Structure formats: structure tokens, C-alpha cells
């Protein structure tokens, strides 16, 4: 009998306590994002979704910077190469090589 009482007392002491309240969490998220949650599942999903999305977006940005992926490199290489003679890509190198070989050929090849 004493053992059962001790066991039940220990079990009640080991119950985890809440580390946050839904009211406080709803107030926090509604002030930042304007979102209020009806239950804990949506709150926990959002608490997981926001940092994971931020990490993925920053990783995509770092990869984009590392690979030198900028909009004008894809859209207007020819315009940029015409403005800046030092600007050189594979695209402009191929054009220059075609022109050079057509000049060596005697001008019989097309330069475009």
C-alpha cells in the first residue's frame, strides 16, 4: 500500500509542466504576422514552418550568389557586353570566336 502511494506521488511529480501558454503565443504571432491559431497543431506547424522556410530561402540565396545567378546575366548579356568591353561570358566568347574564325576563313562565314 505504501509502495503504491509513493509510486503515484512520483508519477504526479514527473508530469511535464507547460512551457508556454496558447494565449501568449497567439498574441505574439498575431502581433508579428497577424495570424491567430485555433489549436496547438496549427501553432506548432507554424512554429516549424517559419524557421525552416527562412533557412531554405537563405540557402537558395547563398547558392544564387555563389553561382553568380543574377537577372541580367540571363536576359541581356549581349547588351551588357556591348556597354562594357571587359564583360565576358561564355556567350560573348562564342560570338568573338565565331567572328575570329570567320575573319581567318576569309569572311565566308556569317558573324551572327
UniProtKB/TrEMBL annotation:
What InterPro entries does this protein's entry cite?
D1/D2, Photo_II_D1/D2_sf, Photo_RC_L/M
- Major localization listed first in the record, in broad terms: membrane
Q: Name one GO biological process term.
A: photosynthetic electron transport in photosystem II
Spell out where the chain crosses the membrane.
Answer: 42-67
Pfam families given for it?
A: Photo_RC
> Which Gene Ontology terms of cellular component type are present?
chloroplast thylakoid membrane; photosystem II
State if Nuclease is listed as a keyword: no
Q: Establish whether keyword Transport is in the entry.
A: yes
Gene Ontology molecular functions: chlorophyll binding; metal ion binding; oxidoreductase activity
| This protein's UniProt keywords | Acetylation, Chlorophyll, Chromophore, Electron transport, Iron, Magnesium, Membrane, Metal-binding, Oxidoreductase, Phosphoprotein, Photosynthesis, Photosystem II, Plastid, Transmembrane, Transmembrane helix, Transport
Where does it reside?
Answer: Membrane
Topology of the protein relative to the lipid bilayer: Multi-pass membrane protein
Record family assignment = Belongs to the reaction center PufL/M/PsbA/D family.
Any idea what this protein is called? Photosystem II protein D2
The organism is Rhynchospora pubera
